[in-house]
Amino acid sequence: MSQAPPRRPSGPPPGPPPRPLPVADEDTKPFWEYTRKHELRVPKCQNCGKLYYPLSPICPHCLHMGADWAKLSGKGKVYSFIIARRRYHPAIPVPYVVAIIELEEGIRMTSNVVDCPPEDVRVGMPVEVVFDDLSPEFSLPKFRPAK
Ligand SMILES: [Zn+2]
Q1: Domain extents in the chain
Q2: Distance (Å) from CA 51 to ligand 1 centroid
Q3: CA 121 to centroid of ligand 1, rounded, Å
Q4: What are the tens digits of pLDDT across the range 64-116?
């Protein structure tokens, strides 16, 4: 009769869980390379000259393939928002604000509003970009009340 093998601990390693990171692909890699340098840039179509976001290899205005990366001011206002009170990931504490930010260049970007209590966030509130350095590879653009 053989003995049962010693039990090994199961489950995740001790300590705080790692924060989830974005996954860059060929189309989004330049965006993340710029945010790592704390620059907010989006594609500017080489044909019609319009900015666009979400990121795509094809201009949504004229279907042209080919864009330059235009630097944005990082200034905008809260277009809409919710306060997340339910924890969806163990590494992301609640509450936090998920907002659609309307940048002054006309681009709308989903992000977080930080550096202020969630209850103080208002539609139309002026905000400016700030970069959250998640890892050596990824800095997430977030927005704080404009100073
Ligand atoms: Zn275009």
Answers
A1: 29-145
A2: 8
A3: 34
A4: 999 999 999 999 999 999 999 999 899 999 999 999 999 999 999 999 999 99
